[in-house]
Automatic annotation (TrEMBL):
The lineage of its organism: Bacteria, Pseudomonadati, Bacteroidota, Flavobacteriia, Flavobacteriales. It comes from the Bacteria. It comes from Psychroserpens ponticola. This is DNA topoisomerase IV.
Length: 128
């Protein structure tokens, strides 16, 4: 009986927990993120305005348009795609925020009916 009571209390307390999402703080600015290529961890940087995202990674610069769906979700599409994969828009959703960073997930904005949806997660830190 005691275990059931403790379990109910635990569920009630964890059910009330909400993740902090101050997404408007991360709509614009300069951000850093880490990524892996062939087992090597690297750091990239991007600058985002209300309508544009410029990525600086692996000695390359890439620009994309940004269309905000709401304060925590946006769709990004490469401005000058070099191949078919870059032509596909990507849907980003901010999952949680801290004072200077946020965690997000992303996937293709248009789902391919013949492939399983692949959702990836990442995090970015605001540096300016």
């Amino acid at each position: 009986m005691r275990i059931i009571l403790l379990l109910i209390c635990f569920l009630l307390l964890t059910g009330c927990y909400t993740v902090e999402r101050n997404c408007t703080d991360f709509k614009t600015g300069t951000f850093e993120f880490t990524y892996n290529i062939d087992g090597v961890e690297k750091t990239g940087r991007f600058v985002r305005t209300e309508a544009l995202n410029v990525d600086y990674f692996d000695n390359k610069i890439d620009s994309a348009s940004v269309r905000w769906i709401n304060d925590c979700e946006f769709v990004q599409k490469t401005i000058h795609p070099k191949n078919m994969a870059e032509q596909k828009a990507i849907h980003f959703k901010i999952l949680s925020t801290t004072e200077d960073a946020y965690t997000f997930e992303y996937q293709l904005a248009v789902k391919d009916p013949y492939k399983k949806a692949r959702v990836e997660k990442g995090s970015a830190k605001k540096i300016n």
